[in-house]
Amino acid sequence: MATRLCRNCRAPLEEDQEICPACHTHNPIPKPWYVPIVGGAIVALIVYLLVDFGDVARVLGIE
Ligand SMILES: [Zn+2]
Asked: pLDDT of 5-40, one tens digit each?
């Protein structure tokens, strides 16, 4: 079901179709509001898993 329209010629586009089939205008797919939040959470999780907090505490002189 086409739910978006080409911003140039108003031709119907599929949800995941970025290039208009009629005029070849690039129509960026709008990202949901939570994409940057989920992305940030994933990056934070990776950093958390990669960083050895024992070493960090030793460097800071906490231990
Ligand atoms: Zn178009």
From this structure: 999 999 999 988 999 999 999 999 888 899 999 999
CA of 30 to the centre of ligand 1 (A): 16
Give the distance (Å) from ligand 1 centre to CA of residue 28: 12
For the chain, domain boundaries: 1-30, 32-63
Rounded to whole angstroms, how far apart are CA atoms 63 and 54? 8
Are residues 16 and 29 in contact, defined by beta-carbon separation less than 8 angstroms? yes
For residue 49, report the distance from its CA to the centre of ligand 1, in Å: 45
- Provide the pLDDT for residue 2: 54
62: amino acid identity, one letter: I
59 C-alpha to center of ligand 1: Å? 58
